[in-house]
Amino acid sequence: MNAEITPMKTAAETALADAFAKARGRLPGDDAVAAKRDAAFGVFAQEGLPHRRVEEWKYTDLRALMRDAKPLAAPPDAAAKARAKTAGALVGDIETRRLVFVDGAFVAELSDLAGLETGLTVGSLAAALAAGDGTLAAHLGKLAPTKDVAVALNTALMGDGAVIRIAAGATIERPLHLVFVASDKPVATFVRSLVVVERGARAMLIESHEGPPDADYQVNAALELFVGDEAHVDHVKLVGEGAEALHVSTLAAAVGAQARFNSFSFVAGGAVVRNQLFLNFDGEGTVAAVRGASLLKGRQHADTTLVANHVAAACQSREMFKTVLDDEAHGVFQGRIIVRPHAQKTDGKMMTQALLLSERAEADNKPELEIFADDVQCGHGATSGALDDELKFYLMARGIPAAEAEALLIQAFLGEAIEGIEHAGLREALLDQVAAWLKARTK
Amino acid sequence: MALLEIKNLHVEIDGKEILKGLDLTVGAGEVHAIMGPNGSGKSTLAYVLAGKDDYTPTSGEVLFNGKNLFGMAPDERAAAGMFLAFQYPLEIPGVATMTFLRTALNAQRKKRGDTELSTPEFIKRVRELSGKLGIDQDMLRRAVNVGFSGGEKKRNEILQMALLEPRLAVLDETDSGLDIDALKIVADGVNRLRSPQRSFVVITHYQRLLSYIVPDIVHVLSAGRIVKTGGKELALELEARGYAEYQEEAAA
Questions:
Q1: CB A15 within 8 Å of CB A68
Q2: Containing domain of residue A38, as a range?
Q3: Tens digit of each residue's pLDDT (9 = 90 or more) over A337-376
Q4: What is the rounded CA–CA span in Å between residue B160 and residue B190?
């Protein structure tokens, strides 16, 4: 007899199962894709929504946090598309190539599809799945961890997303901007994107996620990113979801040899956010910087979970995540550097810092090292604390009012992470976002 | 009317009384030196004037320009013309020196109803003042006091004072940790600011600084009270004879 206890399904779990059963026949893709969907759904059916007894989800009990599962989004109407025209403002006034998705569906007429640089191919996942695209078939699902339930749900229910290929040696100057915008409808979206940057190519990829402040919607976004040997990729994720939204997103990246890879996550929106970064360093001699800044207030819950997996030798990775928490916000950082047996001469350093502006805020920091090689340099650190009263007094003694003094110190705290962004315009835009957040705080 | 009037001031830190009935009156344009042994309450006086949180006045009053100082937050005191040159200036990583200076100056001007200084005007002012204090441009590009030597930090305090043009500057052991050259630069910086409208309270353990910043009046602070007041010659007397007799007097 099987002694395993199957817990009662929650309303959200039941709704997800119903949604998959209903949508299964009309989701895009051929039989092979359908088989992938079924297998992925099987993982969810087996595990259910992740909860606090699942180690990786200990601090973000999705089963408890997800009271319901919204119905799958219908294609956006004209009004939703019209509102989406001004979306993507999180990047400030920098010039980007926008690929716009409304409620998870690609909207060609809002996207910049003309005058593609040589070597750049862009398209939508739905179209690529329908057409049986070869690049897609060769890469889809290769990087995203199949055992992760958030990824499994994404694979089972993926409707649309971006498919981008940058040919070997091409330099794409204009940043590619995936603009994900939610309408005001209480719906769920499952977007899946695939970006392949071939050998020696160079590009910047921004994904921004946003929606109306009062809309109660759910986003599950996944991005598989292939960074070829000697390629240089800057990835930026901006989470500016509405205050009621549930946002789960996953970056799964494989980085080749002698590459440069930078990733920056900025989290300021959403009621519940889970930002997952799974990075594999598969080729030797790569230099990577993975950073992030989160600004949380009210009852926001934001979790950044990072796995930097050093498979090949002599890579350098730097991870730095900063979180500012006000009110009753809850911040989580779980970061793990893994050094596999052959990854000698790995140089990995991870730092996570939380700044608590309120006594009711909570920060959980869990940095981990798993080292299976014997000639490496790895370290991690974690701090959490309040603003320094002595520094605040020093600033005030010079005539700077309390709120402004605090703002200066908070900006200084975040600055260390944000200054690492190489793109000056984007760096300025994020510093502006921080300034706006601070201004709203003192009102 | 005196610029600063301290009457029977009692101050506690963590329930322990440090100032025990201090009286001090500083008129406009005067330079007062406060000397005293370690632990006599010199720095406490400096902090309580600037408005540090954990320094609790339990009785007495302080009038600054006729206004009750204890009703004002530290930034309001600064805008009203109070300046404390810290004994141990703090390092503020991530806050650029120029940002700090401009924010401070403009916050004070705003509170006083003046217009903010334009960026070119501001930069010109800072360049002029820093040049005179031997502060190079590289230091100004760094974060506040980060990587500064002890002497550089003290000069940076004087730069802030010169820029903010306070009515009353309290210098808390500004001479500590300075070699003789730096001491002269700092003293010159202070002397340039002396004017009939501006007053100074120079807190020091040693007479040395007072050879360069010559005070009008010298006070001896011991066990939380002013126990003797005299002219500048009192400083020399203290240097020769030490504080022993005042400590005994206070203990008795």
A1: yes
A2: 11-283
A3: 999 999 999 999 999 999 999 999 999 999 999 999 999 9
A4: 11
Count up the domains in chain A and report the number.
2
Nearest chain A Cα distance for residue B104, angstroms: 5
Are B90 and A390 a contacting pair at CB < 8 A? yes
Residue A298 burial (CB count, 10 A): 11
Query: Residues B174, B179, B180, B184: what is their CA dihedral angle, to the nearest 10 degrees?
Result: -40
Burial class (CB within 10 angstroms; exposed 0-12, middle 13-18, buried 19+) of A24: middle
Q: Chains A, B: CB contacts under 8 A, how many? A: 75
Pick from B51, B75, B105: CB nearest A401: B75
Question: Is B95 close to A409, i.e. CB distance below 8 A?
Answer: yes
Q: Judge whether A2 lies within some domain.
A: no
Q: Determine contact: B108 vs chain A, CB below 8 A.
A: yes
Residue A332, domain member (yes or no): no
Sheet with A260-267, side-by-side order of all strands: A105-106, A97-102, A176-181, A202-210, A232-240, A260-267, A287-296, A316-325, A347-356, A377-385
**pLDDT tens sequence across B107-161:** 999 999 999 999 999 999 999 999 999 898 999 999 999 999 999 999 999 999 9
pLDDT score, position A2 = 52
CA–CA distance, A366 with A372 (Å, rounded to integer): 20
What is the distance in angstroms between the CA of the first residue and the CA of the last residue of chain A?
62
A113-139 burial, b if ≥16 CB within 10 A, otherwise e? eeeeeebbebbbbbebbeeebebbeeb
| DSSP, res B198 | B
B181's CB contacts (< 8 A; 6+ apart) are none
Ordered by start, the domain boundaries in chain B are 4-42+51-251
Neighbours of B248 (CB within 10 A): 10
The last residue of a domain, from among A248, A267, A283: A283
Domain boundary, last residue among A283, A302, A326: A283
Residue A140 near residue A161, CB atoms below 8 Å: no
**Beta bridge partners of residue B202, listed in sequence order:** B33, B171
Residue B14 sits at the chain A interface (C-beta within 8 Å): no
A399 CB neighbours in chain B (<8 A) are 75, 78-79, 104-105, 107-108, 111, 164
More confident residue, B170 or B133: B170
From the candidates B75, B100, B105, B163, which should be mutated to test the interface with A, based on the most A CB atoms within 10 A? B75
- Domain topology for B4-42+51-251: Rossmann fold (3.40.50)
Q: In whole angstroms, what separates CA A10 from the centre of its chain?
A: 26
Q: What is the pTM of this model?
A: 0.93
A67 contacts A165 by C-beta, under 8 angstroms? no
Calculate the alpha carbon distances from B152 to A127, A129, A173, B160 in Å. Answer: 64, 65, 44, 12
ipTM score of complex: 0.96
